[in-house]
Amino acid sequence: MLMFIIRRLLQTIPVIVGVTFVVFIIMHLVPGDPAVLMAGEGASKEAIQSLRESLGLDRPLYIQYFDYLIHIFQGDFGVSLKNSKPVLDEILVRLPITMELAFYSILITIVLGMIAGIISAVKQYTLTDIGVMIIALLGISLPSFWFGLMMMYLFSVKLQILPVAGWESWQNIILPAVTLGAGGAAIVARMTRSSMLEVIRQDYVRTARAKGLRERVIIYKHALRNALIPVITVVGLQFGALLGGTVIVESIFAINGLGRMIVDSIRMRDLPMVQGGVLVASLIFVIVNLLVDIFYRFFNKRIELN
């Protein structure tokens, strides 16, 4: 297990390099000059050129990229072009908020999705099964930004029982977490149903029923454990989707997290901030996938970790 973890961590190095390269190139292809945005519309050409030279933006792209890469591996994410603050410090302030939002969202995804999937599988082809799958289909189909706005309109504007925006109390968590976790819960529900239906048809489940075990014991002790392997895969992928979804949800609900920081930085052409934020989000996704592989082995000892 230790060697597996070490190998996977070493494999993250080319992933990090690839992410930095793609984000670096994309941000330099976006129209607009960061120096112009920083200097202001009334700045002279000499002032703008001087600012570009001080920021190193006048150098060839490949030199800028390799210089950035060297600093990244030294733990230096650079300085924000917007406020001249260290990028890493800004990320560390915003990251806990985003991780908290992602945690509650993935909790909703897992709990609601698995409960709905199990109920749907146990009551296959009944009205309950059909109703759950219709709701799941709607959850997958509805865009998160539209769903979030509708939730805000209903619970904040009309009913006035939840706050519109912010991140000060537990009430502020409900709408963003449900908005972010609803689509994932629908996907997990469909996968759990499919996996459970496959498992409960196996011979060992029939044997357990023949021995007279209670149905609840058969479902939760025997069937569910073996049905979790593909579900864990989906949950791991959904965590990555949640990190991407925070960009939209944090903007809708005015949450000062990592996702909103990236959006604001893209608007301001703050290259170091965008690159740092995307890099940290990518690292989190890689770590989550590593944990998913470890959970595979925990739930099924026959799986080899390579």
TrEMBL record:
One of its GO terms (cellular component) is plasma membrane. It is a multi-pass membrane protein. Residues 95-296 form the ABC transmembrane type-1 domain. It comes from the Bacteria. InterPro entries: BPD_transp_1_N, MetI-like, MetI-like_sf, Opp2B. Keywords: Cell membrane, Ion transport, Membrane, Nickel, Nickel transport, Transmembrane, Transmembrane helix, Transport. The complex is composed of two ATP-binding proteins (NikD and NikE), two transmembrane proteins (NikB and NikC) and a solute-binding protein (NikA). Belongs to the binding-protein-dependent transport system permease family. OppBC subfamily. This is Nickel import system permease protein NikB.
